[in-house]
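Protocol step 4 of 6.
Sequence for Putative laccase (Lupinus albus) entered exactly as in the expression construct, tag removed. Do not edit the line below.
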Amino acid sequence: MAANFSVELVTCAIVLLTLFVTIVTSHDIFLDWHVSLDFNIKPVNADQPVITINGMFPGPLINATTNDNVHVNVYNDLDEPLLFTWNGIQQRLNSWQDGVSGTNCPIQPGRNWTYVFQTKDQIGTFFYFPSINFLKAGGGFGPIRVNNRPVISVPFPKPEAEFDLLIGDWYQSSYKNVRSILDAPDVVSPQWMLINGKGPYMNPLSKTYETISVTQGKTYLLRISNVGTARSFNFRIHNHEMVLVETEGSYVNQIELESLDVHVGQSYSVLVTANQNAADYYIVASPKMSNATNNKSFVGIAVLHYDNSTTPATGSLPCGPDPFDLQFSINQAKSIRWNLTTGAARPNPQGTFNVATVTISQTFILQASMAVIDRLPRYTVNNVSYLTPDSPLKLADYYANGSGAYELDAYSKNSSNVNAVHGVFVASALHKGWMEIVFKNNLDTIDTWHLDGYSFFVVGLGGGEWRPELRFTYNLHDPVARSTVQVYPGGWSAVYVFPDNPGIWNLRSQNLKNWYLGEELYVRVFDPDPNPAKEKPPPQNILLCGKLSSISFSIFSHQSFLNND
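Step 5 output, structure tokens:
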């Protein structure tokens, strides 16, 4: 009996110690951001405003650990409204902090507002950016790292250092000018590719270029994100192989790569070992579906510099795959598989959560295309071009049951509207009922789709028309979980989602022009249980706008009190 009692005490002590470790390793991170325009940075030697945060372009790193609480006090020193969204951060039970037009009123010029969100049960490589008014084309983006807690092992040796590489296409002119002519059929495409806000190495118009310094024999972790507006790119380093280890919060089966396709809005982590002769080597990001190989502006070029090198990078750039070879890209995407045996944010293996035996309760079939509506070109989902109401959907849902802002399921989730229309497209998803989403691309460019609030399992993708029998080709053994998936021209991608995170969540094209001109909808996941442990109430500092701007704060405070009771 005494022995059993001792065992119980030891077990209790271990549980308490584990709880204590969990608590003390969750921290609060406080950040003050002053967002403003800078006319002197001129990354491509053009007179254009660049959106900076605390004078930085790209913006400052958010360096968090699993379950940290991040407080970001945003001061809007721009001349127009502003919101930030946190690409890939799931905002568990808290869509109030998602930072898109359907969840938040914008921060007005001259005002400030504080986001408070938790990196709940997440690890990985992400980024943030301004989500409204085409502002992302002017900058304002920056990296997010969510590190493992010390009690969770990482499935690779600790690297010597980590580097964030924010890579994306860039316009030659002001984002305001581009925004003003997006309705024109012949609007120009981005003309540059920047790496960490810097122009290509060797280009006379680049004010500076990016350099990564390494020590011979050491291994480094590169966190790569496509923060651009339109173009996928192929990433490679001259004479150096990469080992892919993570994407958007999921550890993957490690594969060696000579190059990696990164589509708009996607993030990856790769290991690179400095195992070559001491010299400088090209780092290249070349656009997909473009004859830009010899274009000195549209190929991003940085330098991998060995710290004892005296030999500059010269000669031809390293060759990548044919930019029009979509089969190469498809095959590479299919080779990226979930690591089933390692833990991530939690100690249990990722493979604990597998989709092999799930029952699908709902299917969305979403087709992206273009249409002319009211004589203007628009992007559509199932022939509906999203129309942003003056009150965020989440506020209208909470205070007015959605009345006056949207009609739930007014448009079909699996077939196209007969005529192209503007509309507030809000689709219902069954809470905790597995859902299949099939994305179809009728466009002539690579599209990418992102779902806020979730990671989804990429079970299939390919060219041609999707058909129900293609479900037999799905990878249900080890599909990777991520939040952004590419859809090839004329092709399809299929994902599985478990809607266990109540809220109203943005489902959008990551291609900025498509998104700005209507290629988005919102998914409403409703849990009728009013317990705030199931979904958080509105924050005390909530911003009100539109038809709800007259709601009295006394009513708001009373409702918040009731929700917290």
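Step 6, annotate. Confidence is low (pLDDT under 50) at residues 1-24, 553-565.
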